[in-house]
Amino acid sequence: MPSTNDSSNAQSDDHSTLRPVGVAIGLAVAGLVVNVGASFLAGLIAALALGPEAVLNDGTVQFALGLPGQLLVFAFALGYVRWRSLDLPISLPSRNGSLLVGAIVAASVAAAFGLTLLRQAVSGSITSTIGGMVSATPSLTLWIGVTSVLLIAPAEELLFRGAVQGRLGEQFGTWPAVAGASTLFAGWHLLNFDGTALGTLLAAGVVGAVSLLWGYAYERTGNFAVPVLTHGLYNLTLMAITYAQLTA
What is the DSSP letter of 189? Predict the structure, then answer.
């Protein structure tokens, strides 16, 4: 018959296992609240200054309103990484690291297009927030791509690779941490799509799938600059392709 001490130790082990999972989920949710909340507040201010029509119909204004949220996500994630003293090595990628960045970007784009075709066959077409923004202003795609490299990718990677994956990795090791961070990253992007429930889930799943590649790249190199570059250049590539399609 198990002793009271054995039962207490088992409960303690359960709590120590579940705690980092709860923290990881909490970080993702808190980051989303910070991002959406800042964008909503910026939207209210813009509506008062520019009028509701500009906020609702101008893609450039809509994109700009999302930037304060990204800045706050970066600050929030950086604060947690420093408070937790998580290891976050960053340097210019070596020659092999640069080749890996290129390979991962190419693989991410190929995977995204392949999985998107599969998703469309299963669930039909859906719309995205980015697609709505750039449809009337194709040149905005290029600004989004550049901003992704400079701000969006660093902020999101700091949250999901630095904070979430770093915290999960302390308890569970490499691959569970990569999978957990990518799953939360996919959930974080559910609001980016509009369509059927199945289509939205599958579209977010595509985001999670390419995120696995970025998490792998981070663990492979131990250099935080690598997932930031792969994420940013992936987004830039997609925006360049979108621009070419819109202006063809």
Answer: T
**Biggest CA-to-CA distance, the chain:** 75
Distance CA 165, CA 179 (A): 9
Domain boundaries, the chain: 4-247
The runs of H, that is alpha helices, within 124-196 are: 129-134, 140-147, 153-157, 166-172, 174-188
Q: Cβ(74)–Cβ(156) under 8 Å? A: no
Residue 67 exposed, middle or buried by CB count within 10 Å (0-12, 13-18, 19+) = middle
pTM for the complete prediction? 0.92
In the predicted structure, residue 175 carries a pLDDT above the cut 90? yes
> How is 74-129 classified by DSSP, letter by letter?
HHHHHHHHHHHT---------HHHHHHHHHHHHHHHHHHHHHHHHHHHHH---EEH
Q: What is the pLDDT of residues 93-147, one digit of tens each?
A: 999 999 999 999 999 999 999 999 988 888 877 889 898 899 889 999 999 999 9
Q: What is the DSSP string of 214-234?
A: HHHHHHHH--THHHHHHHHHH
Question: Within its chain, how far is the Cα of 27 from the centroid?
Answer: 13
